[in-house]
Write a structure and sequence with these properties.
This protein is of the alpha/beta class. The protein is about 25% helix and about 25% strand. Mean pLDDT is about 90; it is low at about 1-10.
Length: about 270
């Protein structure tokens, strides 16, 4: 059987296979800092934008869809008590190796954020939940937000980065320059993404800002801010906590249309 057909796109099995196959190349091609909190390619850090808890020491922090847990490691460096959840064993192994190298204690859990392990969390036990670019891979974004809301402690904070609908658009050449083509703004779907070996794929989705905000409100969260961050100036790309040659090549596009939506909410 064609291995790309073994699992339906978006299933936990498909996502695990996709990220496991992509992990080594993804980590090699993207420079992701664990000294500051990244929000996405070429964007300012969470610290620079003032989106993080001012003093994370002792805070119980949970990262969903962590990849190699660079953001959790950055918080652990500042004294937070961090747990990170991801599907791909290779990503978690990279996180484990880095945490060991730095002498940090970090709880790493292999699992699906849409069907989390029973021992992961109980209601109201996390002070800070963060998830950067995982929501587009969720099978049920509304339930994702409901779960985050139920897990937050009173006074807790959620920082969620999702894909902007315009990030799903195609850039096309026009007579007077480049422009965006988006077939359906209200149902923005990315082209299927393949692992570099061509064997595994997934179909991430974006949410409109209103859908994201209304889902957070329905989950009982207080909206503290919704942001469409602009990338850093080119002269500061070396400071970007998430960077890489591929993203530098796309600078002109990322600079003219938002790539990510950043939601900050509280309970």
């Amino acid at each position: 059987m064609d291995s790309t057909r073994q699992h339906r796109p978006g299933s936990a099995e498909a996502l695990r296979a996709f990220w496991q196959a992509l992990s080594a190349d993804y980590l090699a091609q993207n420079q992701i800092s664990d000294e500051s909190f990244h929000l996405g390619p070429l964007l300012p850090s969470g610290e620079e934008l003032g989106l993080l808890p001012s003093d994370p020491r002792g805070l119980r922090c949970l990262e969903l869809g962590s990849g190699a847990a660079q953001n959790s490691i950055s918080l652990a460096r500042r004294g937070a008590l961090c747990t990170a959840l991801d599907l791909a064993p290779a990503m978690l192994e990279a996180a484990r190796n880095r945490a060991t190298e730095l002498g940090l204690s970090l709880e790493l859990i292999e699992g699906d954020f849409d069907a989390p392990p029973a021992n992961l969390a109980s209601e109201g036990c996390w002070d800070f939940i963060h998830s950067v670019w995982a929501l587009p891979f969720s099978r049920d974004p509304q339930k994702f937000l409901q779960r985050c809301a139920s897990w937050l402690a009173p006074g807790g904070r959620l920082l969620l980065v999702s894909a902007h609908p315009l990030a799903a658009a195609e850039w096309i050449e026009l007579e007077d320059g480049e422009g965006l083509f988006l077939p359906d703004y209200f149902r923005p779907v990315f082209a299927p993404r393949q692992s570099l070996d061509g064997e595994h794929f997934c179909v991430p989705r974006a949410l409109t800002p209103s859908t994201l905000i209304n889902a957070a409100i329905a989950a009982g969260l207080r909206i503290d801010g919704l942001y469409e961050p602009e990338p850093l100036p080119a002269s500061r790309f070396v400071e970007a906590p998430y960077r890489g040659e591929h993203w530098t090549q796309l600078e002109s596009q990322i600079r003219r249309a938002p790539h990510g939506l950043v939601l900050v909410a509280g309970k």
